[in-house]
Amino acid sequence: MSEIYDVIILGAGPAGLAAGLYAGRSRLNVLIIEKGQDGGQIAITDEIENYPGQIVEGESGPSLIARMTEQAEKFGAKRVSDMIKEVELEGEVKVLKSEKNEYRGKNVIIATGAHARPIGCKGEGQFRGKGVSYCATCDANFFEDFEVYVVGGGDSAVEEAMYLTKFARKVTIIHRRDELRAAKSIQEKAFKNPKLFFMWDSVVEELEGDDILQAMYVKNVKTGEVTKVEADPEDGMFGLFGFIGTVPNTKIFEGIIDMDERGYIKTDADMHTNIPGVYAAGDVRVKSLRQVVTAAADGAIAAVQVERSMSDYF
Ligand code: NAP
Description:
Layout: E1 4-10, H1 14-25, E2 30-34, H2 61-74, E3 78-81, E4 86-88, E5 94-97, E6 102-110, E7 114-116, E8 132-133, H3 136-139, E9 147-151, H4 155-164, E10 170-174, H5 184-192, E11 196-199, E12 202-208, E13 215-220, E14 226-230, E15 239-242, E16 246-248, E17 278-280, H6 292-310
Parallel strand pairs: 1-2, 1-6, 2-3, 6-17, 8-15, 9-10, 9-15, 10-11
Antiparallel strand pairs: 4-5, 5-6, 7-16, 12-13, 13-14
The structure holds NADP nicotinamide-adenine-dinucleotide phosphate.
The site of NADP nicotinamide-adenine-dinucleotide phosphate has 21 residues, from α4.
Catalytic activity: [thioredoxin]-dithiol + NADP(+) = [thioredoxin]-disulfide + NADPH + H(+)
Protein name: Thioredoxin reductase
Subunit structure: Homodimer.
């Protein structure tokens, strides 16, 4: 029979690592399980300017997350790399199963975050990794001196488009409306960037190419006109980045935990889900603001709730 942890945290993004830090400092026996690299979406974010107290010029997602990981481990959070495929959450001891292992905990904090929403155009799957990407930090250098298009109008699309201008010779944001959703401070910087252009009221309908992305059909939603955008013949290809929001990583909890219609987990203000001993923190839960600071705060609250539920003092 495997060890029974006081709390198992699923996911090592800002929410999971903050929960690990607080649980570790409370002397709980804590295990953090992460399937890939630490940091979740923040690991693929180039620049962070709005985490309070974080004033290091050019702080990147990976550098911030590396310090969060180190801090959680310093206070005793144990780590394992594994992908949980099945969960049994009812009862006093929760069981999390991967292909080869089973993990047991008295409490579980779900901090599995969210992933990029696909653009939803024809041919998208075929050109993934062959022109289509959802991570500027990962793939920008493949487009050194090429033309790049970015779909979306939120903070992510505009910030990542600006990052891409450091590599690409021209970056065009394709947005379905005629005004951006991004914060005004971000918009101000974007409109001043000489390498950044906009295609308003437009959606990408279909992608084409011989193996790599060479053309796409873009529809103007106001006029109905469809334009074929082709790669510069000298380049032979272009890049298309999608930043149109996220989808929660909650598939394994479907039918088990209460969620909203989009699959985000419902919690109360103290991160309790509908199942006793099961908490959700960060981007994975229903909330109005998905930021590093709110994810970290959720993680801290969830860990303190676990501590209180296990302590005689409260
Ligand atoms: P978001 O704010 O939800 O924006 C998504 C964008 O994609 C919107 O402009 C939306 O258009 C567009 N869109 C959605 N579905 C689409 C579709 N099917 N086809 C075409 N366009 C579509 O997502 P996000 O930018 O990823 O940001 C997520 C959260 O993280 C937000 O709370 C954001 O503030 C936060 N964030 C903050 C920072 C920062 O503070 N520095 C950086 C990154 C992210 P409409 O505008 O027409 O709806």
